[in-house]
Every structure is written in structure tokens, then in C-alpha cells.
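Input sequence (145 aa), recorded before submission:
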Amino acid sequence: MMGAAPVSAGASSAVSFAAPPAARPDMGQRLLTLTGLRFAASLGILAHEINTPQPIQVDAELNLGPQPLRPQDDDITHVLDYRKVRQIIIDECTAEHVNLLETLIGKLSQRLLMLPGVLGVRVKIAKLEIFDDCEVALRMQTGQW
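Predicted structure, C-alpha cell format:
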């Protein structure tokens, strides 16, 4: 290459980079997952869906980003309490009648993304008994992954 300075075999770079958090031996990528959460919700546009809550199943995955492999101590107040996440899912899905599954999954995804420390959310909601021969489900992903 013309104009390039020669580099000797023994030359070292003055630039050093810290290892990314995931590559550090004391750090990891933390994901909180709730799967198979089943309860009844008032959801749908069909007459029987409007009048009677139906069983749904919610799966949620929350990206908490790079975290120490162990929390600073063994105190629940220093981590995202999955009991709280579970209750938020139930509360959001049962607060009121919603016509569309698309509306419900968007509302739930937004609410979960608002939790402290949550960088990204993946949610799946399945209507378990809408048809005799299959379930119907939607998945939504938002935030950082």
C-alpha cells in the first residue's frame, strides 16, 4: 500500500479495549422467563367471548441485559421479583374486556417494558379454546435483544 507506514513484527498497539460485559467471567446476560401462565381473560369479538372469559396462556421473556453472575447480596429488593412480573401479566390481561389479541399483547408488552432494568420484552399470548382443533397465538418482541 502506498503511503502506509511499515509495521514491525514486534510493535504493539497502544489502544486497549475492556472486555464486553458478556465476556467477563463475573458477568452474564440475564433473562427472566415466565412460561405457561394460564388464566381466564375477557378477550375477543365473538358473542361467547364477550360474555364469558376464556382461558389464555401467556409466555414472557424479559431481557435484563448484562448482569453480575450473582446479585450484590441475597436480597429480593435488589433484583426484578418475578412474582411482581407474574401479577402484572395477570392484572393487565384481566383489567377489562379487549376485542383484539393484538391490542392486548401490545398493551402487555408496553407495561412489561416499563419495569426497571428491563431492556427488551418477548411475549406470546395464546387463546387456548378458540377452536376445537387448534390454539391461536400472537408473539410480540420489543426493545433491545
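Checked by second reader. The two ends are 40 Å apart (CA to CA).
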